[in-house]
């Protein structure tokens, strides 16, 4: 599998390559494959509760906030290579997805440990952050939330709080239909994107 996002960060992605592919693709086929609205040369896509429109072929994005470069790349990855599939209701760990073992260490360090140590002693802050996202509590761990990434694609963030004897621990689960929408490397970067969005919200509280 060729690197998609570069060795260190998604901003290293050769964005122009994906934009060239996007401009050449049939927008109606992309909309049908991803089950997205495509009206007046614009896709409508929801990311963590925020509704964006994306023009074709020039890829101008409008929405309630300016998406980060990783979020822009995620839109491209989904439109170019992903497809919508209904979830079965089952949630899987990252390593259970195809190629998950290859990026497991990266995902564990950048996403699971980061989430655990950001909120392992701050459950009330996590509660406030999740109230600003399309997230609902779930009865898992000491604190758990289910977050909608895009329509039909949901994640569960599960936290075990730390104490004097044990450090905090966490798990991030994905609805099983992620395998049709994204690659394992995309999913590792989705962890970065979602936790980064949580951090941005926390900074405003």
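Q: What amino acid sequence fits the structure above?
A:
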């Amino acid at each position: 599998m060729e690197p998609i996002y570069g060795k260190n960060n998604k901003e290293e992605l050769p964005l122009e390559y994906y934009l060239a592919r996007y401009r050449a693709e049939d927008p109606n086929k992309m909309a049908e494959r991803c089950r997205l609205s495509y009206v007046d040369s614009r896709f409508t896509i929801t990311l963590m509760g925020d509704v964006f429109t994306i023009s074709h072929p020039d890829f101008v994005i409008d929405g309630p906030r300016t998406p980060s470069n990783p979020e822009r790349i995620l839109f491209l990855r989904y439109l170019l290579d992903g497809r919508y599939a209904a979830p079965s209701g089952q949630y899987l760990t990252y390593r259970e997805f195809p190629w998950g073992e290859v990026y497991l260490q990266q995902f564990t360090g950048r996403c699971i440990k980061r989430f655990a140590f950001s909120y392992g002693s701050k459950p009330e802050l996590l509660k406030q952050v999740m109230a600003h996202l399309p997230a609902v509590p779930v009865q898992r761990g000491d604190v758990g939330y289910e977050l909608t990434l895009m329509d039909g694609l949901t994640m569960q963030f599960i936290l075990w709080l730390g104490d004097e004897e044990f450090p905090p621990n966490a798990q991030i689960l994905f609805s099983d239909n992620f395998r049709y929408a994204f690659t394992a490397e995309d999913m590792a970067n989705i962890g970065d994107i979602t936790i980064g969005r949580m951090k941005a919200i926390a900074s405003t509280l």
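Q: And what stands out in the fold?
A: The radius of gyration is 17 Å.
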